[in-house]
Amino acid sequence: MAEKSVDLPQECWELIFNSLDHHRYFESLSLVSIRFLSITDQLPRTFTISSQVIPFLPCLLSRFRNLKEIEIREFEGDLNSLLYQISKSGLDLETLSFSKQNLFPLMGVRELGLRMRNLRKLNCSKVVSLQDSDLFVIGNSFPLLEDLDISFPQYYSRFNPNGSLALASFSGVVTDEGIFDLAMKLNRLCKINLSGNHFITDKSLQSLSSNCALLREVVIHDCDFLTQNGISFIMRNCDNLCSISLDSLGIPYIDSFFQESFSYAKTLCELHLQIPNLTAIFQNSFDPFLSNSRTVANFK
């Protein structure tokens, strides 16, 4: 008498499928049986949306119910409508990326925030015309946000050739007011990339370090009005700071206050400095700091 076959539990099948080199095999597996189809539909956690996917999007969002991360890439349609459609899907996203877009999707983000309050990571880097009002909406929509990338917003020729600081009060750019609002609302923020926001000052760093107690990583490249004082404030007041990346801050010399600030950064383990012509100065200034074996420092 033939032995009765015993099927594997679903957890075992999931482990087997996830051990495959690439999720592209899931489609073939889904054709084997209804059960395999059900299992493979539950496994994907990440999904990339491009213009080519849009005609099939309702079916795909309905099929893959456990998605946690969506990246919008090479999309040329109405981003507000797309985010509205995602918000209606019933998914519980943790990560959303829509960098290099021609406009910040204000209405779409608001709609998404009404239904997906658990978002932990948002990447809206290189968005055209990013401004304080957009940051207000981010803070209101995603109070649990831990990782935010608002780096290198694109403004093209909107600024006067002289690059006057008076433009920082213009409503069409990111200023200290927008960063202050984020700092007040995002008390779980752990990482922020402020690079390329040319009109923020040390006040932004002070508000972040004073209000975001969990802040661990800060990236600030090409921020013209940030100084040693702002960096020093972060290192002296962020008890959990473990990584900081700086360049092009226009630092002509290293003052003692800045150098001494490193002794306050007890948890700092990564330091990235890319400041032309000052490599030797930094290395000599931070010799005691760099001697700590837990520290990884890159000077360029």
TrEMBL record:
One of its GO terms (biological process) is SCF-dependent proteasomal ubiquitin-dependent protein catabolic process. It comes from the Eukaryota. GO terms for cellular component: SCF ubiquitin ligase complex. Signal peptide: none annotated. InterPro entries: Leu-rich_rpt_Cys-con_subtyp, LRR_dom_sf. PANTHER family: F-BOX_LRR-REPEAT PROTEIN 2, PARTNER OF PAIRED, ISOFORM B-RELATED. This is F-box domain-containing protein. It comes from Jatropha curcas (Barbados nut).
